[in-house]
Amino acid sequence: MTDQVENNQEAAAEGQQAAPQFAVQRVYVKDISFEAPNLPELFNVEFKPQVKMEMNSKSRLVADNNFEVVLSVTLSAEVEEKTAFLAEVQQAGIFFIKDFNEQQTHQLLGAAAPEALYPYVREAIANLIGRTGFPAIQLTPVNFMGLYMERMQRAQAEAQQQAEAQGENAGSETVQ
Fold first, then answer.
1. Contacts for 139-144 with beta carbons within 8 Å, 24 or more apart?
2. CA distances, 176 to each of 48, 51, 167, 173 (Å)
3. Taking the domains of the chain in order of start, what are their residue ranges?
4. Class of 20-161 in CATH
């Protein structure tokens, strides 16, 4: 009976080792930039900014099962056709990803990791804007899984169009 308990414990330990793992190892600012070129003149006008946000992420393998993901956000605001501020933040993290298949790993790097980094970006940008004396601007939450799924659907549609175009070209003959 003791042998059976030991074997079950060993099997359970092996099963735990094979379980997929996703963990944040470290979060850090990779790059940060802020410009407010038209201060103090813009303090004399009503602050109703036209705000634009650009966002992207990239990832790379840095060590066994450890990936660096960098979420880049650029936020610009104009008031009366003058730049009020330009904030750029590259928030990065090291993520441990083990025992997921390729598609799941891609999804973790493209959606889950940027989602984990986004609150840090929001805080950094709010802090930078607050230091200018402008009213705070809070970035709205982002559905990273939804964005990821849209990107995948777009990529799949483009691949299908290319395959169809190649199929049409392969089927046509030139007559002389």
1. 139/53, 139/73, 139/75, 142/55, 142/115, 142/118, 144/110, 144/111, 144/112, 144/114, 144/115, 144/118
2. 66, 59, 22, 10
3. 20-161
4. alpha beta
Q: What are phi and psi of 64, to 5 degrees?
A: -50, 120
What mean pLDDT comes out for the span 133-147? 91
User: Mean pLDDT across the chain, nearest whole number?
Assistant: 88
Token pair for 13? 């330990």
Single pTM value for the model: 0.80
Q: How far apart are CA 3 and CA 7, in angstroms?
A: 6
The pLDDT tens digits of the residues spanning 28-85 come to: 999 999 999 999 999 999 989 999 999 999 999 999 999 999 999 999 999 999 999 9
Cis ω for the linkage preceding 40 (within 30 of 0): yes
